[in-house]
Amino acid sequence: MKNINKTTDEYSNLIKKNQPPVKKVRNIIRAFVVGGLISVLGQGLWNLYLLYFDLSQDDAGALATITLIFLGGLLTGLGVYDNLGQFAGAGSIVPVTGFANAMVSPAMEYKQEGYILGIGAKLFSVAGPVLTYGMVSAFIIGALKQILGG
Amino acid sequence: MAKKLKGQTLIFSNPPQIIGHTSVVGPEEKKGPYGKDFDFAYQDVKCGKDSWEKGEKQMASDALKGAMDKAGLDPSDVNLILGGDLLDEIITADYVARDQDIPFLGLYSACAIMVEALGLGAALMDGGFADCVLAFASSDYQTAERQYRNPIEYGAQYPPYKQYTVTGAAAYALGWLGGQTWITHFTAGKVLDLGVKDPNNMGSAMAPAAADTILQHFADLERGLPDYDLILSGDLGKMGKKMLLSLLQEKNLNPGKKLQDCGALIFGGKEKYGAGGSGAGASGVMLGNVFIPKIIKGEINRILLVGTGALLSPLTIQQGESIPGIAHAVVVEKITGG
Amino acid sequence: MGNYLTAFLIGGLICVLGQLFLDNTKYTPAHLLVALVVLGSIFTGLGWYEPLIKFAGAGMTVPVSNFGYVLTRGVLEEASRDGLMGLFKGLLETASAGISASVVIAFFIALIFNPKS
């Protein structure tokens, strides 16, 4: 016979009573502003590459994405992106800079385990599902369109 | 018919003494309010080695050697080493024992390992099976985070009740002479699981087990809060401590300031560390260097040390399983005329 | 291709939806990113993603849903040319500048830097 006899629901309610409240409104505002600003940065880069480097709209856009990836990766390497993440939540997870962070952070950590099995494998340990499902859904949509004759 | 067992509590008729102890910590712990109390602090968490795991092993080895030195022991004096850590296969402890020529009993109860080692070590001595044992436990922020949760530099948004694993190792030498504190009782805890699934909320996962063990200890010995100067939990953190107080209050126990938590104390409550420290090293480094001196000075007499462990497995969490908790307790006190 | 205001508003809005998802469900960031990529893919299939890019510019290309768009667009273009083989070729050919850049850039950064506590 245990001395504490509560159901998981009862305990879960007790936790909710005791835990510090999640500041949802504050989080939404922060996510909005940071996510919006990163998008503005992306827009600026896009315009820059379009006008000054005389690239096509697609290429300029791709280069803007690559620049953001580099920035996200660099800020992760400098140890700053986790602080941004704690502040902005989805505002820094959703933009492609967050994707770079998801690749760099595990890879950096497993350097001790070597280049092949350490960095090589761990690049994908957090970001892997995005690639898997991105490709799978692209394939399925493509297949559906073929079948339905779109 | 077990003569010295009441319920879940082992009652020692020949309680051993703590004859030496050492704590080794990392830079974050050194920066905290108890920084100057620890025996040694490394500025580099890798301790000059090329991996965090090797660094943790260095700290644990240092603690073990330190405890032997302080107790004036030669390795040939020690009958048994008991210890563990948070990593898979308790590999840190395994490697530490590899360097010693002493039989090794590896233990795992997550962050309750320190108390489990002290309790079992004391029991073996009380039972006449050993005259000198070493008990140790260690934890490390980098090694724990990458095994149990996310990469350190990952930009996730963590809730305020998340804890910060203590980078620290502690070792205790138990013997018959020369100590000023005794281990007189050991309450072995049961595993309790009230369905917490969030690996960022370990305090809440452990609190039910802590409450269960404390209540059982009091019932077994027919004692209550007035019999103790301090109820010291291992690493419940601020959130877990609140949950424990809630659970005890429902059973009409209100320890108030008598209940302290090593994890909540070690980093001084700063926001960077969330709900406070966690890890197998937390209780070990705080007991010997902060609270045993209080017993020796006569400020307090009897502590109920409750080590708390969250038995988290990263794999089964992905399967939707919850996190069971366990808590072991030892009574550390001064025996007058002992 | 949008302007600064629409980029800010739409990019910010997608992040807000992401934040609501994280704060109100038990799902993790990994689930959120997968959901966004798949939605990007579906919107592309329905022909909605491109008009949204025209309106909001980077507000639609900065969030990771853009990977879904680029991958799907590549598949659809190749498939309309090559039929079944196009489905597979399309995926590999437009492995997407974003994804290949991520792997290469992340590799070198991880090589140079170390995590701090």
Write a brief structural summary.
The complex is a heterotrimer of chains A (150), B (338) and C (117). Chain B is α/β, with parallel strands linked by helices. Chain B is built from ten helices and 15 strands.
Task: From the structure above, extract its key features.
heterotrimer; A: 150 residues; mainly alpha; 0% strand; extended; B: 338 residues; alpha/beta; Peroxisomal Thiolase, Chain A, domain 1; 13-stranded mixed beta sheet; two-stranded parallel ribbon; 34% helix
Total of domains of chain C: 1
Order of helices and strands of chain B: EEEHEHEHEHEHEEEHEHEHEHEHE
Gyration radius over CA of chain C: 16 Å
Approximate helicity band of chain C: over 70%
Q: Pairing-aware structural class of the strands and helices of chain C?
A: mainly alpha
CATH superfamily label of the largest domain in chain B: Stage V sporulation protein AD
End-to-end gap of chain B: 28 Å
Name the pair of protein chains with the most residues at their interface, and give those residue counts.
A-C, 75 and 75 residues
Unreliable residue runs of chain B: none
Low-confidence stretches of chain C: none
Describe the structure.
With 150 residues, chain A is mostly helical. Chain A has 8 helices and no strands. Chain A has a domain at 21-123. Chain A has helices at residues 8-18, 24-52, 57-77, 81-88, 90-93, 96-109, 115-122, 128-147. Chain A is extended. The model of chain A has no long low-confidence stretch (mean pLDDT 92). Chain B has 338 residues and is an alpha/beta fold. Chain B folds into 2 domains: 5-148, 3-Layer(aba) Sandwich (Peroxisomal Thiolase, Chain A, domain 1), CATH 3.40.47.40; 181-333, Peroxisomal Thiolase, Chain A, domain 1 (3-Layer(aba) Sandwich), CATH 3.40.47. The mean pLDDT of chain B is 95. Chain C has one domain (4-112). Helices cover 80% and strands 0% of the residues of chain C. The longest helix of chain C is centred in the N-terminal third of the chain and has 21 residues, at 4-24. Chain C starts with a helix and ends in a 5-residue tail after the last helix. The mean pLDDT of chain C is 89. Chains in contact: A-B, A-C, B-C. The interface between B and C is small, with 11 and 7 residues.
